[in-house]
Write a structure and sequence with these properties.
With about 450 residues, the protein is an alpha/beta fold. The protein has 17 helices and twelve strands. The strands form three sheets. Strands 3-2-1-4-5-6 form a six-stranded parallel β-sheet, with helices on both faces. β7 and β8 form a beta hairpin. α5 packs across α6, α5 crosses α15 and α15 packs antiparallel against α16. The structure holds nicotinamide-adenine-dinucleotide, 6-O-phosphono-alpha-D-glucopyranose and manganese (II) ion (MN).
C-alpha cells in the first residue's frame, strides 16, 4: 500500500493526556495510513511542550522522516493540513472539578458530560471548538476535523446549527470501549469480529443487534452475561481489573441499566439518568472523578513524558495506544482512502431514526466515504427510549440556543429539563453558582 497519499495531521489540544496514545497509534499504522507531517496546537504552550517534547522523541526514533511542529500560532498550526484531530478541554481539569462539585452540593450528580456539569462544560466548549473550525477553514479549507472534544453531544449540536457546512465529524470512544468488552465476553479477539446496530444520542444509546460476520446472532449470549455481570468481563471477574474502581462500578452498574430494557444493551452513561440518586449517594463531594484523573491519568502521562525527554528515548515507555486512539485513526483512514468502513458517529438524524426529530444529532452506524459519513437507517425506536431521548435532545438544543442568544432563561430551562435535576429551584441554584465560576468562559447571559 505504498502508493497511498501521505497525510498531514494536526492534533488540536496537543497538551491532552490522550495525545501520546494517538501518536503511538499513528506510528503503528504508517503502512495503511502514511504520514508526512504532524503538528500540535494548544493554547497552553507550557503544557503542550511537555507532551510535544516526548512525542518528538517517539517520532525521531520510529519515523524520522515525519516533519514535526508544536505551536500556539493558529496560522502555523492549521496551514497545509489534511486532518485536525481535536480533543481540547476548555477550562481544563480545574473547571471540570467545579462542574462536578457544584451540582453535588445540591444533591445532583456531578459528571463531565451528563447533567448540569456537562451543560456547564458545553457552554465552555462550544466557543473553543468553533474557533478551531474557523482556523481550519481559513488555513486548510479542504481539511476534515475529527472531534473528540466533549461534551460531544452539545458540541455536535452547536456545529450542526452554527457551522452547518463545516467538515467536522464528532465521535465518542465509549461504544468502542464497550464493544471491546463484548468481544471479550464472547471470547472473540476483537470488536471487529462482529457488526453492531446501535441508536441513540451521544452517551445515551442502545445496541439492538450484534452479528458475527457469518450472520449469527450474538445478542443472546451477551445479554445473558450483562443481565448478571453488566460489562465486567470474565477475566476481570476472575482476576480483578487494572481499571480504576469508579470505572469498574460503571461497568457493573450496566446490569441495573440493562434490566430496564432487556431486549437491547445500554451505553454505560445511561446510569447517570436512570439511577441518578444511586450515583449521588456513592459520590464523594470533596473528591470527584476530576480529582481521580488529575491524581491518576494526568500525573502518569505527564511524568512519563518528562522521563522520556530526560532520558531522550521512548523505547521503554509504559504509555499505550488504546481503542480511543485506534478509533480516530480508523476514521481518518476511512475518509482519506474511501474504505467504506462501518463506524458509529454522531450525525444529524435526517430520518435515520424515523420517529425522531430529524434535526437531532444522533449516534448511529455510518458508512465512511471520502465525502463523509453515509448514515444507516435505524427505523423506528420504542416509546421508552424515544421519550428519554426527546427530553435529552431538548436539553442539548436549549444549551446551544442559550449560548448563541446569551439567554439565561434557556439555560435555566435546559438544566431544569435534565433528567438528573429534581426541579426548577435546584436548577436555578446550580445555574447561579455555575455562572459565578464560568465568567471567564461563558458568554454573558441576560
Ligand atoms: P486535557 O485537559 O489533558 O487536554 C486538553 C488540552 O486542550 C489541554 O492541553 C488544554 O490546554 C487544551 N485546550 C483547552 N482549551 C483550548 C483551546 N481553546 N484551544 C486549544 N487548546 C485548548 O484533557 P483530556 O482529559 O486529555 O481530554 C481532552 C478532551 O478529549 C476532553 O474534551 C475530553 O472530554 C475529550 N475526550 C472525549 C472522548 C469521547 O468519547 N468523545 C474520549 C476521551 C476524551
Ligand atoms: C469515555 C467517554 C469520554 C470520556 C472518557 C474519559 O471514554 O466516552 O467521553 O471523556 O471516558 O473519562 P475520564 O473520566 O476517564 O476522563
Ligand atoms: Mn464519549
Amino acid at each position: 500500500m505504498t502508493n497511498l497519499k501521505a497525510q498531514s495531521i494536526l492534533v488540536a489540544g496537543g497538551g491532552s493526556t490522550f495525545t501520546p496514545g494517538i501518536i503511538m497509534m499513528l506510528l503503528d499504522n504508517l503502512d495503511s495510513f502514511p504520514i508526512r507531517q504532524i503538528k500540535f496546537y494548544d493554547n497552553d504552550e507550557e503544557r503542550q511542550k511537555i507532551v510535544a517534547d516526548a512525542c518528538e522523541i517517539m517520532l525521531k526514533e520510529n519515523a524520522p522522516d515525519i516533519k514535526f511542529v508544536a505551536t500556539t500560532d493558529p496560522e502555523i498550526a492549521f496551514s497545509d493540513i489534511d486532518f485536525v484531530m481535536a480533543h481540547i478541554r476548555v477550562g481544563k481539569y480545574a473547571m471540570r472539578e467545579k462542574d462536578e462539585k457544584i451540582p453535588l452540593k445540591y444533591g445532583v450528580i456531578g459528571q463531565e458530560t451528563c447533567g448540569p456539569g456537562g451543560i456547564a462544560y458545553g457552554m465552555r466548549s462550544i466557543g473553543g471548538v468553533l474557533e478551531l473550525i474557523d482556523y481550519m477553514e481559513q488555513y486548510s479549507p479542504d481539511a476534515w476535523m475529527l472531534n473528540y472534544s466533549n461534551p460531544a453531544a452539545i458540541v455536535a449540536e452547536a456545529t450542526r446549527k452554527l457551522r452547518p457546512d463545516s467538515k467536522i465529524i464528532n465521535i465518542c470512544d465509549m461504544p468502542v470501549g464497550i464493544e471491546y468488552r463484548m468481544a471479550e465476553i464472547l471470547g472473540l479477539k476483537t470488536r471487529k469480529d462482529f457488526v453492531a446496530r446501535y441508536y441513540g444520542l451521544n452517551h445515551f444509546g442502545w445496541w439492538t443487534d450484534i452479528w458475527d460476520h457469518e450472520g449469527n446472532d450474538l445478542m443472546p449470549k451477551i445479554r445473558e452475561w450483562v443481565a448478571e455481570h453488566g460489562y465486567v468481563t470474565p477475566s476481570e471477574l476472575e482476576n480483578g481489573s487494572e481499571q480504576e474502581e469508579s470505572w469498574m462500578h460503571t461497568y457493573a452498574k450496566a446490569k441495573d441499566v440493562y434490566a430496564l430494557t432487556p431486549d437491547v444493551l445500554p451505553n454505560t452513561y445511561l446510569k447517570y439518568y436512570l439511577y441518578s440518586q444511586d450515583e449521588v449517594e456513592i459520590a464523594n463531594p470533596d473528591y470527584t472523578r476530576a480529582n481521580e484523573v488529575m491524581d491518576g491519568r494526568e500525573k502518569q502521562v505527564f511524568s512519563e513524558c518528562v522521563r522520556i525527554s530526560k532520558e531522550n528515548t521512548a523505547s521503554m515507555t509504559n504509555l499505550e495506544a488504546d481503542d480511543h486512539a485506534s478509533y480516530i485513526v480508523d476514521l481518518a483512514r476511512a475518509i482519506a482512502y474511501n474504505t467504506r468502513e462501518r463506524m458509529l458517529l454522531i450525525v444529524e438524524n435526517k430520518g435515520a431514526i424515523n420517529n425522531f426529530d430529524s434535526t437531532a444529532m444522533v449516534e448511529i452506524p455510518c458508512i465512511i466515504t471520502s465525502n463523509g459519513p453515509e448514515p444507516l437507517v435505524m427505523g423506528e425506536i420504542p416509546r421508552f427510549q424515544k421519550g428519554l431521548m426527546e427530553q435529552q435532545v431538548a436539553v442539548e438544543k436549549l444549551v446551544v440556543e442559550a449560548w448563541a442568544e446569551g439567554s439565561y432563561q434557556k439555560l435555566w430551562q435546559a438544566i431544569t429539563m435534565s433528567k438528573t435535576v429534581p426541579n426548577a429551584r435546584v436548577a436555578q441554584q446550580i445555574l447561579d453558582d455555575l455562572i459565578e465560576v464560568n465568567k471567564e468562559y461563558w458568554p454573558e447571559l441576560n
